[in-house]
Amino acid sequence: MREFKQENLAGARFEESTLRDAVFHDVDLAGARFDNVNLTGATIRGALLADVSLDGDIRNLTVWGIDVVPLVDAELNRLHPGRERMRPTDAAGYREAWDLLEQLWAETVTKARRLPPELLHESVDGEWSFIETLRHLVFATDAWVRRSVLGDPDPWHPLDLPHDEMHDVEPVPRDRTARPSLDEILAVRADRVATVRKLIAGLTDERLAEHTTPVPAPGYPDAGSYLVSDCLSTILSEEFEHRRYAERDLAVLDARTVGGGS
To answer: What φ, ψ does residue 211 adopt, rounded to 5°?
Structure first.
């Protein structure tokens, strides 16, 4: 077992590293940033948590013995109407959720069109730009609907943008230098939205309970079999959450233009 005692590791970077079952005692983590980390089963005692931001797939989080996730979940539903509808249990619920998503995204795109085009390529606080967000949603649809559910072995568009944590997988594109116009990426996205709309329009409860047929061609996700409901739930979550992030960042960019900055 390796031990680090009285070491100054300030500014160190740990990437694709395993710290499972590690013990942190009397450690200064002030200002540390954790991206895409697995903290399942972690126990933190005697912590000083001030000005801490936490988000992700959070389940069974207890603070002073109280599971706070239901409380946070209820508040998120209050702050973001419609969020509670993104966890449907039957085909009708998926259709209702998708109709709402199309309506919400139409409102968001209208806001984006009010901004100078160059700002739609700008990152806010290190997050994806608005254009990159749309590119990622095209990728998500290609991966979880066109490939996984519909069985297309080569669903990819050159503008697809996988999540940063995903390793490069041939033949999935990942061109971070591409700068398509809003209309260009919206045309691609409209095609993917129509695909999901058509699939969900004909969805049945029986189909939701089925498993997908594995696609052996290289790509993402792996050539496994997935519940159709899981694939479509992934799309609902991606669409809703990334729209929420986009709304947050568009507000920052809009305030910047009002203030005369760029």
So the answer is: -100, 145
Q: Report the b/e string of 44-80 with b at 16+ CB within 10 A.
A: eeeeeeeeeeeeeeeeeeeeeeeeeeeeeeeeeeeeb
Class of domain 80-258: mainly alpha
**pLDDT computed for residue 262 by the predictor:** 45
Distance CA 74, CA 81 (A): 11
Residue bearing tokens 């089925």: 210
Q: Across the chain, what does the average pLDDT equal?
A: 94
The top-scoring range by mean pLDDT among 26-40, 64-78, 98-112 is 98-112
The vertex-249 CA angle with 243 and 254, nearest 5°, equals: 120
Q: What is the pTM of this model?
A: 0.87
Please say whether the beta carbons of 214 and 223 come within 8 A. Answer: yes
d(CA 229, CA 210): 8
132: Cα within 13 Å, side-chain hemisphere: 20
CA distance 55 to 36: 10
The interaxial angle of helices 130-141 and 182-201, nearest 10 deg, is 30
Domain boundaries, the chain: 80-258
Reported as type and span, the H/E element at residue 66 is strand 66-67
Residue 171: cis peptide before it, omega within 30 degrees of 0 = yes
3-state class percentages of the chain: helix first, strand second, coil last, to nearest 5: 45, 0, 55
